[in-house]
Amino acid sequence: MFIRRILGWLIHLFTASGACAGLFALWAIEQQHLQVALWWMSVTIVIDAVDGMFARFVNIKQVVPRIDGALLDNIVDFFTYCMVPCFFLLVTPLLPNYWRVICIVAITFASAYQFTQVDAKTHDHFFKGFPSYWNIVVFYLFFWQTLPKTNVIILLVLAVLSFIPIKYVYPSRLDHLTNNKPLRIAMICLTIIWGLATYGLLWLYPHTSHVLVAISVGYCLLYFAISLYRTCVPV
Q1: Which of 138, 121, 164 is nearest to 83 (CA)?
Q2: pLDDT by residue (tens digit) across 92-112?
């Protein structure tokens, strides 16, 4: 029990380290080292992707009952998934000057709503509404160098989707994605492949790879398609 308690505290420390990575991302953005900032933002995604799995492994609510891990996770995630990418949008030319503040306010309000819903994570382990993946969105806008006006449309559409109760796949909690275990394992593998492909694109930037682009974008389209299907046809 003592070892599990130590592990529990270390896992909470690991979760909190995501906020430190977010601060380093802000520092890099302020210095206009945008690629470095995206690397730090990717670190926060990795931390968020695995800390819940570690917490469930040690039954962290039992071994460290005085710490609300879910609250800690939400605080860190709101900072790293919303505030850091908003600052990225604020100080880069990805948005037109006259739309910049409007988009950032829309993202902030939409994320505040999404994070504070009682059932933001549904009982069957899905996200309800667009799950504030703004750091990932910012990466694609930066990588594609899409027109600022196009970026406005993309961001505002996603902000609106935060309020629409589509059930989005929770990549690390696939219990109710399907009753077929091999398909759940396949989804996990595809998510890992997407992560590796996206990191590859960031590593190659400003050069690119059509294969990595196809994998990265193809997974995103598959993710949205499966989410929409599971919303209409739950297990």
Answers
A1: 138
A2: 999 999 899 999 999 999 999
C-alpha distances (whole Å) from 186 to each of 50, 86, 179, 191 are 17, 33, 13, 9
Across 70-79, b (16+ Cβ under 10 Å) vs e yields: eebbbbbbbb
Helices (H), the chain: 2-30, 34-58, 60-63, 69-78, 84-91, 97-116, 134-144, 148-161, 181-204, 210-232
| pLDDT digits 0-9 by tens, 190-234 | 999 999 999 999 999 999 899 999 999 999 999 999 999 999 998
Contact between 22 and 79 (Cβ < 8 Å): yes
Total-model pTM: 0.92
